Amino acid sequence: MSDTPTPTGMPAETEADLTGVAARVAPKPEVEKIGGRKLKPSTLMMGHGYDPSLSEGSLKPPIFLTSTFVFPNAAAGKRHFEGVTGKRPGGAEGLVYSRFNGPNQEILEDRLGVWEEAEDALAFSSGMSAIATLFLAMVKPGDTIVHSGPLYAATETLIGRVLGKFGVKWLDFPAGATREEIDAVMTEAATGNVALIYLESPANPTNALVDVEAVAASRDAIFGDEKPPIAIDNTFLGPLWFQPLKHGADIVVYSLTKYVGGHSDLVAGGVLGTKAHINTIRTMRNTIGTITDPNTAWMLLRSLETLELRMSRAGENAAKVCAYLRHHPKVERVGYLGFLADEPGAERQADIYRRHCTGGGSTFSLYLKGGERESFAFLDALKIAKLAVSLGGTETLASHPAGMTHLSVPDARKQALGITDNLVRISIGVEDADDLIADFTQALEAI
Ligand SMILES: *Cc1c(COP(=O)(O)O)cnc(C)c1O
Known about the structure:
Elements: H1 12-19, E1 33-34, E2 37-38, H2 41-44, H3 74-84, H4 103-115, E3 120-124, H5 127-138, E4 144-149, H6 153-165, E5 169-174, H7 179-189, E6 194-200, H8 212-223, E7 230-233, E8 251-255, E9 269-273, H9 275-288, H10 294-305, H11 307-326, E10 331-335, H12 347-356, E11 363-368, H13 372-381, E12 386-387, E13 397-399, H14 411-417, E14 423-427, H15 433-445
Parallel strand pairs: 4-5, 4-6, 6-7, 7-8, 12-13
Antiparallel strand pairs: 1-2, 3-9, 8-9, 10-11, 11-14, 13-14
Helix pairs in contact: 4-10, 5-6, 5-9, 7-8, 11-15, 13-15
The protein binds pyridoxal-5'-phosphate.
Pyridoxal-5'-phosphate (PLP) is lined by residues 126-128, 152, 200, 204, 233, 235-236, 255, 257-258, 267, 269.
């Protein structure tokens, strides 16, 4: 019996010995290289981490709706729990219970990691649950988080008001800070225990880029052997236009709700990084259950197949739309990363852009001539672009930060961040660029 081939072509015994769960044995070696050529993420998104022969030949992974997984024998069950509880390093070798993981989530995590060549990745129920799980895994009372500012509003709330209640302290530097300014904040923070350095680049809505290489150099110089990890929210430019792990970051955080999901039809988050950091964060996720569900994971697998197509098109569209808007008589200024190179006074930011980014993205700030009245008239006149917050979807969105996402920010801070009444935030989608230009033209005329 033992040499009767299983669907995977391996004797049944070997299969159970390897993982304890037959369905998780990958029978066919996966092709990641052809003739020394390393396959690109856009190619790997169609098959990486999934073998159809394990699911009745189904070309696409089925959605595995189950809360728990059957062990082949008691010893295998015990081995899994040794992995889950950390008694044995490396995590569970098979699937155990759906708060810990599932087939759809594992395929998603394998594919997410591919984009930034991360050692490992985790999927979460939202961007915020990813960030909250990261923080809970990394900090304890009395610790300090050093962060760039401004951050996504809910992240600032989480650090200042939620973790603050548990005795966690924070110190921040402005997103565009120089090495000297970063050093000054790090030196002050180093008098306490810095558990985490947390960045977000570009900052919203200022679009200021953080010099991740300078932050890493500063951290290395000031902290010596006991280095706190550097985590960065890469939602606005990743994974296509910026890959922070290649510039000194240890952990990358995503709201997959935005460009990665890309169709404005789901909420999810991701964390990528070294195996050691991901293991720490996974243990916390296993405890509190912030994993994404199988259905959302499946939708994200579909999204990843077109990620490069969508982001490339959105990026090209944004370049065309911004080139048009920039010289319009009713426009004061366009805050688009692609223009940094020829903006007077933006030499430092342009230098960071040149070193870190491969594209300007498709989310930018449009400063109209006038104030709230002009902004509202423009927004209300749009026919193609939808009036909604969020970004990174196939459709173009426009919103008014001062009156919407940043309404509760105190006036002085709004002023400092450049969140003025004439600011409109735009996220360009994958529509026809000339149609979008026609829409913006008529909306500007309507002011
Ligand atoms: C949207 C967003 C988040 C939060 O993500 P959710 O998926 O809404 O929880 C975090 N950071 C940035 C930069 C975002 O744009």
